Amino acid sequence: MAAEWRRLVRGKEFEVEGDEVIVDVGLERSHRVRVTAEIDGLHLEAIVARSAVIIAAPELGRLAWERNRGGSIVGFRLDRKGRLIGEAWVPSIGLERGELELILNHVAAECDRFEHLLTGKDVE
């Protein structure tokens, strides 16, 4: 599936760099989404904010909980490095270009919005 997902996203909308896809989210902003091929699907994850931002954001737990509670495609969690991560999973059976594009765009947009809310910047 590793080579397959790259073939599905090749084109003018996405820039593929190794196992990451740079997604244009508009307003001169972009977001990097890492794609990991698993046995039965693809795991997509993007960094929302690094640990220094997390430490300085006491309301982060509530904000992440509200987003997880209200969303159905992208979930947010802290990883082992203390970064806030947005992630989604998509099954590989029957996966088509349009579906993968939709999920990539959704992950990138949600993570970029959350990043902007926390930092006001376009870092990731």
What radius of gyration results from the CA coordinates?
A: 14 Å
Which percent range fits the helix content? 25-40%
CATH topology: Yope Regulator, Chain: A
Task: Using the alpha-carbon principal axes, give the shape.
Answer: globular
The pLDDT mean sits at: 85
Relevant terms:
Yope Regulator, Chain: A; single chain; globular; 4 helices; 124 residues; six-stranded antiparallel beta sheet; alpha+beta
Describe this structure as you would to a colleague.
By secondary structure, the protein is an alpha+beta fold. It has one domain (2-119): 2-Layer Sandwich (Yope Regulator, Chain: A), CATH 3.30.1460. 38% of the residues lie in helices and 33% in strands. It has helices at residues 2-9, 51-55, 60-70, 97-119, and strands spanning 14-17, 20-26, 29-37, 41-49, 75-78, 84-91. The mean pLDDT is 85.
Topology:
Elements: H1 2-9, E1 14-17, E2 20-26, E3 29-37, E4 41-49, H2 51-55, H3 60-70, E5 75-78, E6 84-91, H4 97-119
Antiparallel strand pairs: 1-2, 2-3, 3-4, 4-6, 5-6
